[in-house]
Amino acid sequence: MLQKFNERNRDILVNISGKLIHRDVAGVSPFDAVVQGGDAVWEGLRVYEGRIFRLHEHLHRLFAGARALAFESIPSEEEIIAQVRATLEANAMRDNVHVRLTLTRGVKITSGMDPRLNQSGPTLIVLAEHKTPVYNDATDDGGLSLITSSVRRFPPDCLDPKIHSCNLLQSILAKIEANAAGADDAIMLDKRGFVAETNATHLFIVTGEILATSPTVACPEGVTRGAVLEWCAEHSIPVEVRDISLAEVYRAGEVFCTGTMGEIAWVGMVDSRRIGQGAIGRMTRDLCEILRAKTATQGVRIVA
Fold it and tell me: From residue 279, how far is each of 139, 216, 242, 251, 292 by CA, in Å?
């Protein structure tokens, strides 16, 4: 599963601190905190017919991360929404769009890790692309194939995953292992050996009629994950948030991943073991239908 270049994105304009710049010349300063040390938080947003699904939940997580990192100043929700709107309008985008929102600590007066060197305020980057859910091709052809990575997720006392930061090296290392194994993505375990998430998404398993997912101890507080848990409560679907071992994943009737960029994607193979009947399961299909219904009617209107 490799994302491909979309010709419609050739001449997109990227928004950097309110300035719309062609993608070929857009850039941030080498003194920016994100370049110097990955000192930034980010969110992925998806646009459906001019609306952004769960926008307020995404911005809440962005602000929470910035506060945890002690950013000196943080733009308001209204300011960020205005810049997202300006970016979408400038690119004539309203559907099947993914927005990568990055908030850095800003430009430093000189190179160094000390946050006191950041005296110009934060840098806001809005990158909007025409992009369908990234797992579409894989799930049309046998579901996702996952392997288990040797890279473990940090516990909160090392680097708290509740800070949705731009430090993604753990995920990149796990993705390298998945690529080498010919898999789509990699399951990452916590330091105790239980499932945390994949390198890019949250993981759910179905055993009998019960859905289960890992607690957010060694993984971020996923927005789509949270939405699925809400929908389970609305539709009386039994769900457990608990530790999950790899053996439970192997023997599950269904396994699926959740995330804004890929929505809900079913898993057909884990560590060369076929999951369930090797086809998308009933509960996964039902939740996909709920997602489609919700995104067709809900979300914050951004563009007409």
Answer: 9, 28, 25, 14, 20
